[in-house]
Each structure stands twice: as structure tokens, then as C-alpha cells.
Amino acid sequence: MTKTFKRVFLITIAVSLINLIASVLFLLKLPDTVPVHFNFDFVCDRVGSKWNGIFPSIILLFVAFMFYLSELKGKNAEKNSKPMTVTLLITEFIIIAVNWFFLGLMSSGADVGDRIKTGYDWIILFMFSFLFIILGNYMPTVRQNKTLGFKMPWTLKNEKCWNLTHRFGGRLMVIAGLVTLAMTMAAKIFDISTNYIIIVYVAVILPCMLILPTIYAYSHRND
Predict the structure, then answer these.
(1) Cα–Cα distance measured from residue 220 to residue 223, given in angstroms and rounded to the nearest whole number
(2) Does pLDDT of 213 surpass 90?
(3) Is residue 119 scored above 60 in pLDDT?
(4) CA dihedral 146, 148, 153, 159 (to 10 degrees)
(5) How many of the other CB atoms lie within 10 Å of CB of 150?
(6) What is the separation of C-alpha 85 from the centre of its chain, rounded to a whole number of angstroms?
(7) Residue 163 and residue 139: Cα distance in Å, rounded?
(8) How far is CA 29 from the centre of its chain?
């Protein structure tokens, strides 16, 4: 484990704890029952305890410790330190953004059947776009491990297959990020609901990100 990763880990733990405390203080000001779930049109379809809002903050801490354990015990830990550090920082940043987006929805005062206009949902899509673009550029540098990357029987057994798959997968991630970014910008400019982007992302982009690298890795399993 490198000193840089240790410093980044300690910083993320400190930020996670600050986020947890801030979330608790925010939740204390809310009524006991708040909106906790919205459908694709941001219509509230369920209310519940305000303490549901604490889970993203707990997940934030959990993710940081999982990265720490992976970096501590993982194969090629030293070689993978930089992509692991970058992935940890981006993941933590996105979880914090989602956390406060969720808390904002909970504080809207909506009841079941009420529709709210957030005005910020496109920001989350922008973040995921940049996540794919940044991580896609780092994928070719990731060495064999069981934590980060396209972990398949063929890539874990064959180092050349691993390297080829991660070069291919990295390019695919960059393309997916650019496509999502372009769709999000178009939705923002032309005032189109981001729900359509989410549908395309879940129905098309995400399956392609899972299926195409698997097929590619299988076709190069004996290289």
C-alpha cells in the first residue's frame, strides 16, 4: 500500500464522518415522516421514517473501508494504487452528491401523489458520465486483481486476456460516458426529461458495458 493511498483513505474517512454528522444534523430538523421514494416522474409513491436518509452516509464509510481492505490484500496492490485511489475519490464524491440529492428530496415536504421538480437530477447524470470517462482512461493501467476491473475467469487466469479486455473495456467506458454526457446536455438544452436518459442507460448502455467486455474476454481467453 502506498503512502498516497493511505493519505487519501484517511481524508475520505474524515470527509465521510463529517458528511455523516452533517446528515444527522440535517435529518434532526425534518419531521418524523418524510417522502422516501419517487418514481421516474419524481412523483412521491412512498413515505417513511426520516432516518432512511442515513443509509447513504453509512454506505460512504463502508465503501472507503472496502477499498482499504482491497488495497491492503489485493494482488498487484502497489501497481494498482493509482487507479484504486482515483476510483475511491470519484466513488466517494458521487455518493456524497447522491446523499444530499436524496436528502433534498426528503425535505421537499411532498406527500404520496405529489410531483416535485428537482432541477438537479441532470447533475447526477453528468457525474456518472465523467465517472465513466475518467475510469475508462485508467482501465488499461489496471493490473490483475479481484477488486477493480473486468473480473472474469478468463481475465483472472490469463494476463494477456486481462490486458486486452481492459484496453477494450476502457475505450467502451469512455464512449459510454461521452454518449451519456451528450444525452444529458441535450436534455438540459431542450428541456427533455432526464427519465428518458435513465431508461436508455439502464436498458442499453449498462447491459452493453457488462455483455461486450465479457464476450471480448471470452474470445481472447486463449491468447
Answers:
(1) 5
(2) yes
(3) yes
(4) -100
(5) 23
(6) 14
(7) 9
(8) 28
How far apart CA 74 and CA 61 sit, in angstroms, is 20
88 contacts 9 by C-beta, under 8 angstroms: yes
* Cα angle 81, 168, 133; round to 5: 60
Question: What contacts 103, CB < 8 A, 6 or more positions away?
Answer: 23, 26, 27, 53
Mean pLDDT of the chain: 86
Side-chain-side CA neighbours of 17 within 13 Å: the count stands at 6
Q: How far is CA 173 from CA 25, 188, 189, 211, in A?
A: 38, 22, 24, 13
Give the Cα separation of 193 and 21 in Å (integer).
33
139 burial type by CB count under 10 A (0-12 exposed, 13-18 middle, 19+ buried) = buried
Q: Record the cell numbers describing residue 146, joined without a space.
A: 479481484
- What the block records as the C-alpha cell of 165 is 479486455
* Model-wide pTM > 0.85: no
Packing angle of the helix pair 159-189, 206-219 (nearest 10 deg): 160
Indicate if the pLDDT at residue 1 is higher than 70. Answer: no
pLDDT digits (tens, 9 = 90+) for 65-110: 887 777 656 566 677 778 888 888 888 888 898 899 889 889 988 8
